[in-house]
């Protein structure tokens, strides 16, 4: 089979690999949809020689087509429609057993696409412990989104304890930010969506944002203050990974509010003296637990949310070079490879 491998310096290759065979406790999926995640671009842009030679793609969704010895669980069966929680730890420590294998401190963490082959290929081998069921009412594309981008937004809102009483500023309206806008509105919150790209602001309005802001138009904290009667928002969710957005997220939240940082790639400093008496909480959030991934999927089904609307680009593996060149411009919606 052929799979997409990043080679660094914004290049990639459709490399040839043997079809996978499941080992003990493993299954093989026939991939139906493999989402493109913003974190892919960090690998795609790295200098040549600094990128692992594994098949890319950590938003897998497909059907079980082979089951290895000792692979147990209700989803480790031929024909099962599944998503993948794309981390594997020791599977025995408290973090792993509570659904957080990415927090494992007992064994090296495997992140599919970084430490083992990912999903940008016709087939993918994974541990049976990583499987999460995909409801028949969800498309494979929706399952791919929930496997990282949409699930990351859900996990962040679990961290902050979002309620319908909150006013949320979502910084960045890429796939994670748009998912956050959709999920927050479905939970009754008021949403202010921010992005420098006009098309993404337009999509945010279509997804239910109560107001949109272009950060290039002026002071973001002042604009948010005008929209909230000077109070600020109760929750700032930063998904863009831009240092300026991190600072604006902190300056736009009300006293006793919460800032949740999700976006990767930036560094910023702040004065403790400036914020100490605001009693704000500053949290990080790293994707979601296995249980949260399933809860997100259940919520999407229960509320009838149209996750398929996240996708603006659907690609074949043979279009990989064009797909990532387009994604690297970061001006559209979400892309997905369909097998």
From TrEMBL:
<dbReference type="Pfam" id="PF08240">
    <property type="entry name" value="ADH_N"/>
</dbReference>
<protein>
    <submittedName>
        <fullName>L-threonine 3-dehydrogenase</fullName>
        <ecNumber>1.1.1.103</ecNumber>
    </submittedName>
</protein>
<keyword id="KW-0479">Metal-binding</keyword>
<dbReference type="InterPro" id="IPR036291">
    <property type="entry name" value="NAD(P)-bd_dom_sf"/>
</dbReference>
<keyword id="KW-0560">Oxidoreductase</keyword>
<dbReference type="GO" id="GO:0008743">
    <property type="term" value="F:L-threonine 3-dehydrogenase activity"/>
</dbReference>
<dbReference type="InterPro" id="IPR020843">
    <property type="entry name" value="ER"/>
</dbReference>
<dbReference type="InterPro" id="IPR011032">
    <property type="entry name" value="GroES-like_sf"/>
</dbReference>
<dbReference type="InterPro" id="IPR013154">
    <property type="entry name" value="ADH-like_N"/>
</dbReference>
<feature type="domain" description="Enoyl reductase (ER)">
    <location>
        <begin position="8"/>
        <end position="337"/>
    </location>
</feature>
<dbReference type="Pfam" id="PF00107">
    <property type="entry name" value="ADH_zinc_N"/>
</dbReference>
<keyword id="KW-0862">Zinc</keyword>
<comment type="similarity">
    <text>Belongs to the zinc-containing alcohol dehydrogenase family.</text>
</comment>
<dbReference type="InterPro" id="IPR013149">
    <property type="entry name" value="ADH-like_C"/>
</dbReference>
<dbReference type="InterPro" id="IPR050129">
    <property type="entry name" value="Zn_alcohol_dh"/>
</dbReference>
<dbReference type="InterPro" id="IPR002328">
    <property type="entry name" value="ADH_Zn_CS"/>
</dbReference>
């Amino acid at each position: 089979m052929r799979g997409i491998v990043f080679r660094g310096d914004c290049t990639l290759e459709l490399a040839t690999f043997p079809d996978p065979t499941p080992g003990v406790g493993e299954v093989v999926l026939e991939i139906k949809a493999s989402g493109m995640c913003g974190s892919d671009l960090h690998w795609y842009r790295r200098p040549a020689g600094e990128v692992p030679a594994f098949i890319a793609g950590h938003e897998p969704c497909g059907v079980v087509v082979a089951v290895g010895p000792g692979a147990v669980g209700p989803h480790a069966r031929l024909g099962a429609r599944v998503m993948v929680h794309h981390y594997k730890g020791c599977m025995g420590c408290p973090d792993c057993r509570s659904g957080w294998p990415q927090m494992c401190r007992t064994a090296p963490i495997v992140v599919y696409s970084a430490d083992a082959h990912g999903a940008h290929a016709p087939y993918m081998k994974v541990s049976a412990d990583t499987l999460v069921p995909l409801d028949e009412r969800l498309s494979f594309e929706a399952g791919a989104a929930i496997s990282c981008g949409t699930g990351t937004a859900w996990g962040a809102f679990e961290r902050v304890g979002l309620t319908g009483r909150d006013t949320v500023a979502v910084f960045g309206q890429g796939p994670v930010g748009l998912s956050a806008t959709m999920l927050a509105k479905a939970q009754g919150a008021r949403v202010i969506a921010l992005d420098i790209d006009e098309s993404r602001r337009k999509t945010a309005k279509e997804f239910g944002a109560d107001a949109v802001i272009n950060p290039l138009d002026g002071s973001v904290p002042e604009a948010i203050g005008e929209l909230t009667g000077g109070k600020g928002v109760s929750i700032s969710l930063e998904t863009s990974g831009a240092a300026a957005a991190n600072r604006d997220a902190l300056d736009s939240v009300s006293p006793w509010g919460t800032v949740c940082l999700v976006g990767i790639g930036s560094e910023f400093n702040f004065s403790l003296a400036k914020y100490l008496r605001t009693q704000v909480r500053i949290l990080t959030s790293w994707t979601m637990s296995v249980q949260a991934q399933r809860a997100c999927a259940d919520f999407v089904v229960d509320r009838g949310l149209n996750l398929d609307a996240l996708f603006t680009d659907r690609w074949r593996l043979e279009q990989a070079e064009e797909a990532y060149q387009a994604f690297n411009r970061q001006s559209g919606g979400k892309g997905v490879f369909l097998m």
